[in-house]
UniProtKB/TrEMBL annotation:
<keyword id="KW-0472">Membrane</keyword>
<keyword id="KW-0677">Repeat</keyword>
<dbReference type="Pfam" id="PF12799">
    <property type="entry name" value="LRR_4"/>
</dbReference>
<keyword id="KW-0732">Signal</keyword>
<keyword id="KW-0433">Leucine-rich repeat</keyword>
<dbReference type="GO" id="GO:0005886">
    <property type="term" value="C:plasma membrane"/>
</dbReference>
<dbReference type="InterPro" id="IPR003591">
    <property type="entry name" value="Leu-rich_rpt_typical-subtyp"/>
</dbReference>
<protein>
    <submittedName>
        <fullName>Leucine-rich repeat-containing protein 19 isoform X1</fullName>
    </submittedName>
</protein>
<dbReference type="InterPro" id="IPR001611">
    <property type="entry name" value="Leu-rich_rpt"/>
</dbReference>
<dbReference type="GO" id="GO:0007165">
    <property type="term" value="P:signal transduction"/>
</dbReference>
<keyword id="KW-1133">Transmembrane helix</keyword>
<keyword id="KW-0520">NAD</keyword>
<keyword id="KW-0325">Glycoprotein</keyword>
<dbReference type="InterPro" id="IPR032675">
    <property type="entry name" value="LRR_dom_sf"/>
</dbReference>
<feature type="transmembrane region" description="Helical">
    <location>
        <begin position="307"/>
        <end position="328"/>
    </location>
</feature>
<dbReference type="InterPro" id="IPR025875">
    <property type="entry name" value="Leu-rich_rpt_4"/>
</dbReference>
<keyword id="KW-0812">Transmembrane</keyword>
Length: 366
């Protein structure tokens, strides 16, 4: 049987490579290939459990493994320069604004299988380098909107918690988010989350919720979506929205789980003409709004890069110009000094010749 450490190390390495390459394991039961479920790890660990956090290097990153230590808070002596923290299967109950503040170098944070129920708004605010946060299998009831302010976060796991529709609130911060994967499977949601525009979201896992209705508008707001998992939901697909959603998913090449929607309404009843699509203008407008946000942010990023390049070029030019002037100044100064020394030497020679001539004249007069 695989040990906890071996499976977790494999998971971290794979997740690191996926984030770095911009890929994802987007299949139902997303990480089952690594013995991973929405709740935690399926394994038997025969090795003696460590009594304190263990440090190691994974892909050149410093990791602290503090799993299964029956801890309700981070150890006081935990190194603050860690980049990977595995604190899964412990007894932590909340994340306040000070809990993670010292660990500003974190890129991967694993807090699965704890007892976390509350997350303060600024709990993650210091984690500017964080790329992956896993909060699966806790008791969280409020969706932490603060994640949208994290500039580097790409993958956020919040499966098997207690998230309800009323706890998910749209926020303008979402438009600036770089989030690519959101896992909300196994919660208590009755619809897709209305978080606002998430322009870079590619993978959305909503399996195992209580979703009954699903419309194209719910999906169109995620204009980069590539994969949508809605398995194990009590969907009622008995109106034209089912055909509209099927058409939208097909047009946008979104990978759907399950593979096909079972629409009970006749497709012909949902349009005036057989060749006329049933996607509404409102759906297209939502999609275009998301695309506009994405395009604008990309243009701003490009402009920022251009200005950085221009600024760097100007700085290099000024440095080269300064060095050139300094070199010319040093050369001219050297020439002046050399010329002055030559003049002094010539005067000395002339003075010596004059003295010799005077001595000779004195000898001749004598």
């Amino acid at each position: 049987m695989y040990t906890y450490a071996a499976v977790m190390n494999a998971h971290v390495v794979v997740e690191f490579l996926l984030v770095w390459m911009g890929l994802s394991l987007t299949v139902p039961g997303e990480l089952l290939a690594l013995g991973y479920q929405t709740g935690g790890l399926l394994l038997s660990d025969r090795d003696p459990k460590p009594r304190r956090c263990q440090y190691s290097k994974i892909s050149g990153m410093l990791q602290a493994k503090c799993a299964e230590l029956n801890l309700n808070e981070f150890p006081k002596n935990l190194r603050t320069d860690i980049e990977i923290l595995d604190f899964s299967v412990n007894r932590m109950r909340d994340l306040n604004n000070k809990t993670l503040a010292p660990y500003t170098s974190l890129s991967f944070l694993y807090l699965m299988d704890n007892f976390i129920q509350t997350i303060e708004e600024g709990a993650f605010s210091q984690l500017t380098n964080i790329q992956v946060i896993n909060l699966n299998t806790n008791g969280i009831g409020e969706f932490p909107n603060s994640i949208f302010s994290l500039p580097s976060l790409k993958r956020f796991y919040l499966a098997a918690n207690r998230i309800r529709d009323e706890s998910v609130r749209p926020t303008g911060l979402a438009e600036n988010s770089n989030l690519e994967l959101l896992d909300l499977s196994g919660n208590q949601l009755t619809s897709l989350p209305h978080l606002g525009i998430l322009p870079r979201l590619k993978y959305l896992n909503m399996s195992g919720n209580s979703i009954r209705q699903l419309k194209p508008d719910d999906v169109a707001i995620f204009c980069s979506l590539e994969s949508l998992d809605i398995t194990n939901n009590p969907l009622i697909l008995d109106d034209c929205s089912c055909h509209a959603l099927s058409e939208w998913i097909a047009i946008r090449n979104i990978k759907l789980y399950p593979d096909k929607l079972q629409c009970t309404t006749d497709r012909k009843r949902c349009t005036y003409r057989p060749d006329n699509p049933i996607t509404s203008n409102d759906t297209v407008k939502l999609f275009d709004s998301c695309k506009y946000v994405l395009k604008t942010s990309e243009e701003l990023a490009k402009a920022r890069s251009t200005w950085i390049l221009v600024g760097s070029s100007v700085s290099v030019f000024l440095v080269v110009l300064f060095i050139s002037f300094y070199y010319i100044h040093r050369r001219n100064r050297r020439k002046k000094i050399l010329k002055k020394n030559n003049e002094k030497g010539q005067l000395a020679v002339n003075h010596a010749n004059t003295e010799l001539l005077n001595d000779k004249n004195r000898q001749d007069d004598a």
